[in-house]
Every structure is written in C-alpha cells, then in structure tokens.
Write a structure and sequence with these properties.
This protein is mainly α. It is built from three helices and no strands. The longest helix is centred in the C-terminal third of the chain and has 67 residues, at 42-108.
C-alpha cells in the first residue's frame, strides 16, 4: 500500500510538473497513467475535474473564435461595400462632370 501511494504521488507530481512547464504531451501521459493505474483516487478525480474545466474552456474559446470570425467576415463585407460605393460614386461624378462639360460647350457655341 505504501508503494502504491508513493507511485501515485510520483505520477501526480509528474502530471503537475509537466502541466506547469507547459509540456502537454508529457502531462497527458501522466494523466493517462493516473486514469489507468489509479482510477479511484483523489488525484485522478482532480485530474478529471481539471480536464472537464479545460474542455469547457476550450469550447468557450472555440465559440469566441467563431464569433470573432463572423465579425471579421462581416467587417470584410462592409469594407467591400464601401469600396464598391466609392468606385461607383467616382464613376458617377466623372459622368456628371462630362455631361456638364458637354452642356457648357454646347451653350457656348453660336446657334
């Protein structure tokens, strides 16, 4: 029993160290060992709780990314509409200026 407790403590410590260091692969391996070898332990319960919250955090983050993507798509569409409007406005203004010039020239010609 003492050997199992020491092994459990070592695996749990390994999981916590690798998690703190940011080595997800090593932390996952320790987590797998906790679940496989010490399924009914407080430490495995803590791990499962942490994974549940992490999963929830990932889901929230994914929803936020999707929301931001939709905003980015909408902003891009608005930018395109503004560019289209500006191009059409310039073309219209050029057309009006040409028509005015034509009228002015016609008005200046003797009848």
């Amino acid at each position: 029993a003492v050997g199992a407790a020491v092994a459990l403590a070592g695996v749990w410590l390994g999981y916590r160290i690798e998690t703190a260091l940011g080595d997800a692969t090593a932390a996952q391996e320790y987590g797998r060992r906790l679940k496989a070898d010490f399924a009914v332990s407080t430490e495995t319960g803590l791990l499962l709780d942490a994974e549940g919250y992490a999963g929830e955090a990932v889901a929230i983050e994914q929803r936020e990314i999707q929301r931001l993507h939709k905003l980015d798509v909408a902003a891009t569409a608005v930018d395109q509409l503004v560019q289209d409007y500006e191009a059409k406005k310039q073309a219209f203004q050029a057309e009006m200026a040409a028509a005015k010039s034509k009228r002015d020239k016609k008005a200046l010609q003797p009848a």
